[in-house]
Amino acid sequence: MDSPPPLSAIKDAKVLMVGAGGIGCELLKTLALSGFPDIHIIDMDTIEVSNLNRQFLFRQKHVGQSKAKVAREAVLRFRPNISITPYHANVKDPDFNVDFFKQFSVVLNGLDNLDARRHVNRLCLAADVPLVESGTTGFLGQVTVHLKGKTECYECQPKPAPKSYPVCTITSTPSKFVHCIVWAKDLLFAKLFGDKAQDNDLNVRSGNASTSDHTEDVFERRKDEDIEEYGRRIYDHVFGYNIEVALANEETWKNRSKPRPIYSKDVLPERLIKQNGNMDSASATDNPSSVSAMASLGMKNPQEIWSLMENSKIFLEALKLFFGKRKKEVGNLSFDKDDQLAVEFVTSAANIRASSFGIPLHSLFESKGIAGNIVHAVATTNAIIAGLIVIEAIKVLQKDARSYRMTYCLEHPSKKMLLMPVEPYEPNKSCYVCSETPLSLEINTHRSTLREFVDKIVKAKLGMNLPLIMHGSALLYEVGDDLEEDMVTNYAANLEKVLSELPSPVTSGTLLTVEDLQQELTCNISIKHREEFDEEKEPDGMVLSGWTPAPAVEKKDENHVDNGVGTSKNITNAEQVETNEDLEIVPADIEIPAEKKRKLSEISNNDGLGTSRVAAKTNNHSKVQDLDDDDDVVFISGGDSDPSKKRKLH
Amino acid sequence: MDGEELTQQETELYDRQIRVWGVDAQRRLSKANVLVCGMTGTVAEFCKNIVLAGVGSVTLVDDGVVTEAALSANFLIPPDESVSKGRTLAELCCDSLVEFNSMVRVSVEKGDISSFGEDFFSKFDVVVISSCSLATKKLINEKCRRLLRRVAFYTVDCRDSCGEIFVDLQNYKYTKKKVDEAVEFELKYPSFEEAITTPWKRLPRRMARLYFAMRVIEKFEEAEGRKPGETSILDFPGVMKKRQELCEEESFNESQIPDYLLERLVVGTREFPPVCAVIGGILGQEVIKAISGKGDPLKNFFFFDAFDGKGIIEDISNPDAAS
């Protein structure tokens, strides 16, 4: 049998993998088997038990160790002669600068969050290194190829922002279980166990100044107060009293069903029987991380939906355990999905609140998923996606630009395909990341501070890591290790000032330049003063625009769909039938069945990996059809006859 | 289900996938017994996937010994000769697989798969075979079909950067939730023999060409008495001749089975690791579907070619054959 030597393109390649998790483990294995000789891998995470069902390079004994390092060792066992360089570090560390990226032939992403994806995208653009990007959720996945100036960059299409809820939905009018979870996690848990100094909207706003005095110390445990009394007092306050206060505002309930106040005495016996709450059985060891209210109450099944009474018991027990076994941490805890007691507390609190509002209750398992924004993950999808990444990486190394594909891994076949390749798009000319398009910001320059601008726009929206803000030649703000002390003081003072009162005032018409030196990205933002913002629709109190695809492009896409399905001369009748059969699946964003819709929004909710684009893409750009049209000629230009189409690469 | 609960260990380990397919599916998986024959790179990928998923047991059959070719795409085999000497591929793969998940029983069965009786196959819920001759594929498929209990049967083969999966679930019933009510579905699968004897000209015009090309190679290897993958460029003229013969029998246009595709399959007998990952992943997903009863299983062929990147499902059932 002849054995072909590894492709010369692979033999000389030096690749960077970002992420050694679900996709990363599969990817490293497939790269090694395929003959890649020099692989660098960055991952800041350590191994957890819940990784082991799919991250097959890791074992129980590795829990707590660096993913990048353990992955390297595991792969060297079956491919000892290749070079793998691990970095147990955050890809956003300043060490990983443009020069670092420049040493690689291609960068392969196996990340789980939008923030890092955007950061790597910018560094790849700045270093002019091709990027193969990927993501999976459950059975869905995708692989895309990004080459500066040739294909769209990762940020050419705006990514769905993480879901946020209006404050009053959370504090007063929850209608879904997730609202109760957010309340329990971000408000109640934070109030009781987190930093007391933090602002918190837990109490219903009543407009009456005297009651706010009264509520001020409600959450403090009184001197010598019995822990169960304290727990019941908190219980009665948040599930009873606060609901009564809310009910008093009749306007709110005109078109809503009224919640029911719940007091502990109505649900539980006056005094909980002591043997039930045996604190010692909560943990065999004194390890604080193994403390559990469920264990303490003899409850085992995380899949079970607890009754109101059970939830109430868990609530009081969890609170008791926090103040008993984990007292030291109280005051600086923040919610962590891997903290069993925290999950128990949040589950019970959310369920009791859900009972009040007539919302269906959920199990601990489900609550944990919602509260922790847990990404659904299976090994098979990751393996498939990793295989597809390597296929694209090899094409990139061979500079075979005509055959680059974005590939979608689908749960239900579309046009008979479970793996669907689509030609990449050319860069979006209005992309502020790869095309330097100016942005515009509507903001109240008399009320918004520089800090709000930095947090809500520069960091959250523009995804900058080490920003520098300039107004003309005046520096308003910058981040860095090597700043002079007086500058640091200066910038700190600037942060608290409203825009119009900065040393170099920012007013309507000002052009601000925001730069990230690490990402080598510069944005120009034109400021427009606006007095009022809609609290519900524009909770940031500022609106950034200019980077959504221009309307003209959208229109072209519509034309394309029409063209693809109906009028193209290439398409036979038989194929139209085929297309119609697929209607149920493909053009999901026209008429999405309820179930599907939820799934899509969940995806964007998780980390914006963009799988939600599967439906949008396959629908808006029926390029697949072009590809499927003739098997002999794999690379069809397709767009020649119709200049209005969004232009493909070739 | 029977109300048995998963242990805390299982709940923790399988947390992320239970969020995908649910507790019931996980319980069914943990009771399923899978037989795997032919430890190729693709099968190694598949085994990894189902061991991680938490099936009850996996039994491996392959008495072959380590060769450079066997190593090339299989990450379960250590390259160290001192470890692999005197041991079969199945044994070596077994050693690696047991480490992936202590809750799955992985074992080895020695012997020639084609000599195993029906009793043997009746112990399994799923049978996957790879790198077997045409005759063996048919034989094992028929043995599985004669059993009282339904055994899900799969074949999987990768050549060059192409892969093929065949699925026979016999009569497969499953329920799907549509809005609020559960709807019953039933799929009738043809056997491998029934499927591949479907007259070519009756198949849809846009059939994946890989299907025809794989049949030509299969017939060529059978006629020449070759083991699967025992071909080289020297065989290309013979394969072309086989194509001509088959196309004449089937009144089928030879241009539907392009030369370049046959050439790739004849020459590229080594597996291409990224394709192993893709095909092993799809196969893993399908087996998980069939065991758990969740999701639409594919019927009844799957093809992937890295050249065009498409992963295509084809339903190849002979409407005339009584099944």
Automatic annotation (TrEMBL), chain A:
Keywords noted in UniProt: ATP-binding, Metal-binding, Nucleotide-binding, Nucleus, Transferase, Ubl conjugation pathway, Zinc
Q: Annotated region Disordered: where?
A: 595-650
Q: Does the keyword Metal-binding apply?
A: yes
Which residue intervals define the domain Ubiquitin-activating enzyme SCCH in the entry? 316-368
Name of one Pfam family that matches: ThiF
Q: Where in the cell is it found?
A: Nucleus
Gene Ontology process terms (BP): protein sumoylation
Q: According to its UniProt record, in which pathway does this protein act?
A: Protein modification; protein sumoylation
Binding annotation for ATP? 19-24, 43, 51-54, 67, 112-117
**Family as reported in the entry's similarity comment:** Belongs to the ubiquitin-activating E1 family.
PANTHER family of this UniProt entry?
Answer: SUMO-ACTIVATING ENZYME SUBUNIT 2 (PTHR10953:SF5), UBIQUITIN-ACTIVATING ENZYME E1 (PTHR10953)
* Protein name in UniProt: SUMO-activating enzyme subunit
- Where does this protein come from, organism-wise? Eucalyptus globulus
Automatic annotation (TrEMBL), chain B:
Alphabetical keyword list = Acetylation, Ligase, Nucleus, Ubl conjugation pathway
Q: Does the keyword DNA damage apply?
A: no
For this protein, the record's Gene3D superfamilies field holds: NAD(P)-binding Rossmann-like Domain
**Where is the protein situated, by its record's location annotation?**
Nucleus
User: What InterPro entries would the database entry show?
Assistant: ThiF/MoeB/HesA (IPR045886), ThiF_NAD_FAD-bd (IPR000594), Ubiquitin-activating_enz (IPR035985)
* Pathway(s) served: Protein modification; protein sumoylation
Q: Name one GO cellular component term.
A: nucleus
The lineage's top-level taxon is: Eukaryota
Q: Family assignment?
A: Belongs to the ubiquitin-activating E1 family.
Q: Which PANTHER family match?
A: SUMO-ACTIVATING ENZYME SUBUNIT 1, UBIQUITIN-ACTIVATING ENZYME E1
Name the chain's protein.
Answer: Ubiquitin-like 1-activating enzyme E1A
